[in-house]
Task: structure prediction
Amino acid sequence: MTSTSEHDDMTDRDLLAAEYVLGTLELAERTAAETMIKRDPGFADLVRAWENRLADLNEDYEAAPAPNLMPQIEARLFAQQPKPRRRWLPALLSFGATTAAAIAVIVFLAMTPAKPTLTAELSADASPLRYTAALTGNELT
Result:
């Protein structure tokens, strides 16, 4: 804050109001000045008077649009995990292994006889006579 020895014609309150309007106060002093504006109508009048005195300076400058910081804030607060890259090699390998297994099963089934042969044998211990019956598909021998 500016000292009163530099500006003898201004009071401390007047200097505080001017520095508040100019935006040169540190955070603690600015917070104290905002509290004074709310509680002290005389200080609020000083601030309004400085705003009116310095308002002509605003005509030389165009209003600058405020940056839209919300997406950046949300991105920092709620960072999303990057999507994992799709790995095609494991998928292709598993597809190839499944296909090879299916082909092996088909070949194995093609090599085995489609109709099993059922055999029954009838004999006695003391007799050389034997009876054998075989059933293959619909044929009985």
User: Anything to note?
Assistant: DSSP finds five helices and three strands in the chain. The helical segments are 12-22, 27-39, 41-54, 70-77, 88-111.
